[in-house]
Amino acid sequence: MRGISYWFYLVAALSVTFGMIWGIVMAISQDHTLSPAHAHLNLVGWVTMGLFGIYYHLVPESGATRLAKIHFVVATAGLVLLAPGIAIALLYDFEGLAAIGSLVTLASMLIFLWTVIRDGRGRKLAF
Ligand code: HEM
User: Which N-terminal stretch is annotated as signal sequence (predicted)?
Assistant: First the structure.
């Protein structure tokens, strides 16, 4: 079975691949309306998910926990709701999906914050 880092990296690489294509389409069309959605897909999807993946790779005992799997599901759900949610907010003036996505994304970061604190308490870190 693959480690949780693989799944974080996979979502990160998919996000930036789609995000770059989206950026190129915006540049060619010279329509930058959706640039905040593109930015969040890249920064939450590529950068943040990638950093989570690196952390779980560096601290494998943390990546092997059930909480790490829950974290992956919550983080991915937040991303999937947030980036399209921002696009929908910009295009149709409906912010509900972006609001839910932002709260789920915050929940993901709270799980990660707890993970970092838990791993740092009285334990010898791998980095
Ligand atoms: C092929 C790669 C990419 C292309 C062609 C591209 C293209 C663009 C374009 C055309 C804009 C709109 C600029 C404007 O309205 O002034 C933009 C905005 C932005 N992009 Fe990208 N981008 C790419 C990759 C990335 C990546 C990898 C990241 C982050 C890790 C990123 C983050 C941002 C941010 C933060 C903004 C500003 C959003 C805003 O001010 O609303 N982009 N990009």
Answer: none
